[in-house]
Every structure is written in C-alpha cells, then in structure tokens.
Design a protein that fits this description.
Largest sheet: 6 strands, mixed
Number of strands: 11
Distance between the termini: 65 Å
Strand order of the largest sheet: 7-6-8-5-9-11
Helix content: 40-55%
Radius of gyration: 23 Å
Structural class: alpha/beta
Shape: globular
Oligomer: single chain
Order of helices and strands: HEHEHEHHEEHEHEHEHEEHHEHHH
C-alpha cells in the first residue's frame, strides 16, 4: 500500500512538472505586442489602455497579448515613431508634435482652440485619418497603422508661483509647449520651452520653466500638483495628434479575424477613454481643489475677452500649416473643410443622442 502511494505521488508530481513546463507554451499568445508608453500606469488613459489589452486578450481567446512598457522604459517617446516603423516595438503611443517633419499633416490636430470635447475630438480626427488620402500616405510612409486617436480634453495652463490670466502676465514667462501651442505662446510674448511630458515634474520643481500647458486629470496622475499650484482654465482644446499605432507590415500579415478584433476593440477604446477622461477630469478637479497630501491647487478662469485674444493668436498656426501643405501639393483648405464637416457630424450626434455610454446605462 505504501509502495502504491509513493507511485501515485510520483505520477502526480511528474504530471504537475509537465503541466508547469508545457502550460506556458500552450498558453502563449500568437501575437505578443510590446507597447511603448510615455507615462506611468495610472490615470484615465492608462486605465483605458489596460481595458483595451484585457479585451484584446479575451476576444482573441488569448491569441493577442499586450506587453506594456510604461514611462519610456523601453523607448523614448520621441523615438516611438521610428521604433514602430522599424519593428523594434510592435505598438506604441505616437505623438506627431515630437516628429513634425515626418507627420506634418497629422500634426495639424495639435492646433489650439480646435475642439474641447473628448469624445467628439477623438472620433472626428480618427475618422478623418481613415478617409484622408494625405494622412493615409503619411502613415504608410512611416510604416504604421493608426489603431485609435487619443485626447487630452480641454488644455489649460499650469503655473508654479502665480496665476496667469492675461497676455501681459505671459510676457517673458518660460512655458513648456508642444505643437501649435508653441506658436501660440510665442505670439503671446512667452518663451516656449520644448521638453518631453515625462520631464515636466523636474522642470517645474527646479524652476526651469514657469509653467506648462496641461490637462486637469494629468496634473493629478503625474503629481504635478506637488510642484505647481495654479491652473488657469483656458480651454485651448485640440483634436490632438496623439494616438496608438501598430507596425504596418505586422498588421498586414495578420489573419483577418485578428485584424478585425484589433480594429473593433480599438474603436471601442476611444469611447472608454473619453468616458474615463471626462469622469477623471471632474473628480481630479474636486480633489485638487480640496488638496492632496496638503497640496491645494488654485483654479482660475481665463476671462472671455482674454480667451478671444489667445484664440486669435492661435490662428497663425493654421495659416502657416495651410501654406506648408500647399507647397507640398496638398489642398490644406480642402482638408480643413472636410475635417470641419466630420466634427460637425459628431457634435450633432452628441447633441441629439448624448454619449454612447450614457445610453447603455439608462
């Protein structure tokens, strides 16, 4: 009896060992996609990305796996475009303002005072990307396929020592900017400073800059409230040249069922992210105003007359962009007219039907 028990135990142990050896191989995904990200694994965008990864794995029965590399731990944000195009990483966060020469058409999406609603902005620009031959050619030239567009929602001005609510207060101030906001703040008399978003905390802490364009939920998730205490709500929103891309050659080689799962889940990601961004913005403002770890954020409204002055200064970016497009043989004015029509469609849908997630919960 003892001999039999030992034999049974031996068989069980051997079987357990074989399961341990072979299970990872059996469970291995067909497509393990490394994702290079600029930020930490917290906040609305990170939460939406985790949802996206979980849904891809579930809907593909484990064939698609996303491996996240947060905080530029694999590739620097400015190198993500080349990394995806070369296949160094399969997927990544792409920001056109970091590579404006390579993505000059897409970079228009970063023009200030474009749009403030998160859901409208993401879907309008993503649809524009799908129907625009100019944007498609640009993506193909850089060897990526856009899976989804991102958003920041309303763009505000975060400052360290004092609030800024007028053009006069901006004179000589060192403001971290990107994309069209660089032209804007230069026109307003500030000194634009170009640094990566991941380096903002230290720049604010050290006084390298006086302020930065920023977004209410990111002030909380990146803990910028620890080193800056004033937020001017300027509502300088943008469509945003900022999204998720996958290596084009890899995508084209995928079976159609895998492509369909990627595309459908990515489209739904934009709804998830928009909802989370809106919810996080409201909650973040409440918490920042009340104080986090003893640090209170003071919110300041930009007077409407000032906002009009700032918006007027932002028009130079569009004029320069149109001229640049025409030199390269692209009908810039026609492009903007199509974009306006698409945005109007989503704004009308929002007005008549509300957000899609609201309908699901009613």
């Amino acid at each position: 009896m003892l001999h039999m028990t030992r034999r049974v135990r031996g068989v069980v142990a051997f079987a357990s060992l074989m399961v341990a050896i072979w299970s990872p191989m059996a469970a291995a995904a067909d497509y393990t996609l490394r994702w290079s990200d600029i930020g930490p694994p917290r906040g609305p965008r990170a939460e939406a990305l985790k949802w996206w990864a979980g849904e891809l794995k579930k809907r593909s029965d484990g064939r698609i796996e996303i491996e996240f590399f947060w905080g530029q731990s694999l590739v620097k944000a400015k190198d993500n475009l080349k990394a995806v195009g070369s296949g160094l990483v399969e997927t990544a966060q792409l920001i056109a303002s970091y590579t404006p020469a390579e993505l000059s058409v897409w970079n228009y999406a970063s023009v200030p005072f474009g749009i403030n609603d998160e859901w409208v902005g993401m879907h309008a620009w993503f649809e524009m990307h799908q129907v625009s031959a100019e944007l498609q050619k640009e993506a193909e030239r850089n060897k990526f396929k856009l899976l989804f567009n991102n958003t920041t929602g309303p763009v505000h001005l975060l400052t360290t020592k004092e609030p800024i609510t007028s053009v006069e207060q901006l004179k000589g101030k060192k403001i971290r900017t990107t994309g069209g906001h660089t032209n804007l703040f230069k026109a307003l008399g500030a000194v634009p400073v170009t640094i990566g978003f991941g380096e903002l905390y230290q720049a604010l802490e050290r006084g390298t800059i006086d302020g930065t364009i920023n977004y209410t939920p990111f002030v909380k998730s990146y803990k910028h409230y620890e080193v800056a205490s004033h937020l001017t709500e300027a509502y300088m929103g943008q469509y945003l040249a900022y999204g998720g891309g996958i290596n084009l050659n890899l995508f084209n080689k995928m079976p159609k069922e895998i492509q369909d799962i990627l595309l459908k889940t990515s489209a739904e990601y934009m709804d998830v992210y928009a909802r989370l961004q809106i919810e996080y913005t409201a909650q973040a403002k409440k918490e920042l105003a009340a104080g986090i770890d003893g640090k209170k954020m003071q919110f300041h409204a930009l007077p409407e007359a000032e906002r009009k002055r700032w918006a007027k200064a932002a028009e130079d970016f569009t004029v320069e962009w149109v001229a640049k497009m025409e030199k390269s043989g692209i009908d810039g004015k026609g492009f903007l007219a199509r974009l306006a029509g698409i945005a109007a469609k989503y704004e009308a849908t929002l007005k008549s039907d509300g957000y899609p997630w609201a309908k699901k919960t009613n």
